[in-house]
Amino acid sequence: MRQLELRLSSETDLEWIHRLRHEVYARELGQHVPNAAGVLSDDLDGVYIVAIRDGEPAGFISVTPPWAGRYSIDKYLRRDEHPGLGDGLFEIRILAVDLERRGELLGKLLMYAALRWVMAHGGRSIVALGRAELLPMYLELGLTPGDVAVRSGAVEYELLTGDVAELTDGVLERYGAVLRELRGTVRWELEVSFLPADECGHGGASIGALGRGFETLDARWDVVPADVLDAWFPPAPGAVAALDGQDWIARTSPPAQGGGLIEEIALRRGVPEAAVVLGAGSSDLIFRAFRSWLDASSRVLLIDPCYGEYAHVVERVIGCRADRFPLRREEGWRIDPERLAGALRAGYDLVVIVNPNNPTGVHLDADQLREVMAGAPGTRFWIDEAYAGYAGRSLEPADNAVICTSLSKMYALSGLRAAYLTAPEAIAAELRRWTPPWAVSLPAQIAAVNALRDPEYYAARWAQTVALRAELAAGLAGIHEELQVDEAVANFVLLTLPQGAARLVDRCRRQGVFLRDLSPLSPAFEGRTVRIAVRDAKANARVVEAVAEALHVA
């Protein structure tokens, strides 16, 4: 298979794609009437993934994303009558392999490539009309028949659906060994890795510059880590001074329950100490709390798009049902409180709201959020306020919600891993039962206490961040009129391109500038939005220069 290439189609591929489609679906199968031109296309032509064998076209498959606005299945059925055909739906269609290339795994590899492309663009479910004679192959790949038969011309089709995560797991279970063997021989040109990662994908690819064994720490000066939302500024001077040169801290066990840090948090936030639970970063708290509250029968509502850890924990770790409350680009990504209140009437065991939201950066006013929560008194809310300092107002304290606050991003302590949540005392007590001793390290406790004692320092740094964010946004907007730049409330901006977020990220990375492609988080981004963290003025200028060069409009 060394001569096999899989990639997205180019403009020059369309002629042979349309000819092969005509050959297979008109002449061979009789779905369409053959025409004199010998070409076949339709107005749903969009994303094609092509297979090139020995330099010659061998086959293709088409994917229709949700932002196309409609699907080919709409000609045959009503989507609202079929469960699972909702938000995040991608259609796979028109699989065609040259007659001389059949029997070479090409059909299955094209299906796999389509699955990887869908996953890389935030897809959660797949629909396809599969030819009846190929049904065994589709079932082997994990697709589920939907008891709907469709006839088009002389061809019988069956409706097939599948959950993207479950399909990926199934494919890796059945074909993992084969795929790992092929990885080094197939020329894979799609803008997504050949094999998926096992864990939730985070944006910190820039950390790789330090070396897997941290043997190249000095490389941090050579890269711009704008793919992660770590603070661009140092921790408060008191926090730095408390750790500087104090090697005894590394070899000393911390207070087992973190009583001093809890006391400081309670004082600064105006909540009882009994309402505070510590964690080694917000992810520690998310995993611990959600596994205590939820099981496979639970229903959870997630804002879409939002921080990817939540969907990962809810769906992949716990395995419960997650519904999405979709945000809309045309509405500026705002959370509409009236629409959210209506969605809550469905009844949920847990509702997760990141406020200000990451990755859209839009903030829902605390009073409006309190009103929404008051309208659902039996519902447990988890409010993630990792970036609330930039919005100027927290929901703390709240009677009917758990408020999770990371000390990483706002207080420049990401490497130390410190976070806390505030909750009604009964909920906090239950979570503390599942908190191991020494959960937060001594360096983290010392730094966090000193950071919380210097609110003036951080207020000044946050104000600087706002000014730097405005400069970064202006620089990016000046690159080209077709670019859309949205300033977040937090420490980042969104850059939306006409197309090709992954390509931009890759080109900038070659220049040592790391950006975050948001495509895998949600199909709402349509594969064309990048999140860029605010850095210092020099690094921001380098980001603008790299983006301009990558787009060839410098």
Give an account of the 3D structure.
This protein is α/β, with parallel strands linked by helices. It contains 16 helices and 21 strands. The chain has helices at residues 14-28, 106-120, 135-140, 164-182, 237-243, 259-269, 282-293, 308-318, 337-343, 366-374, 388-391, 425-433, 442-452, 455-477, 501-509, 537-550, and strands at 4-8, 47-53, 56-64, 89-97, 125-131, 144-152, 155-163, 187-188, 224-225, 276-279, 299-304, 321-326, 350-354, 380-384, 401-406, 419-422, 484-487, 492-496, 513-514, 516-517, 529-533. The strands form four sheets. It has an eight-stranded mixed sheet, with helices on both faces. Strands 10-16-15-14-13-11-12 form a seven-stranded mixed sheet, sandwiched between helices. Strands 17-18-21-20 form a four-stranded antiparallel sheet. Helix 5 runs antiparallel to helix 13, helix 7 (282-293) runs parallel beside helix 8 and helix 14 (455-477) packs parallel to helix 16 (537-550). It is globular. The model has no long low-confidence stretch (mean pLDDT 92).
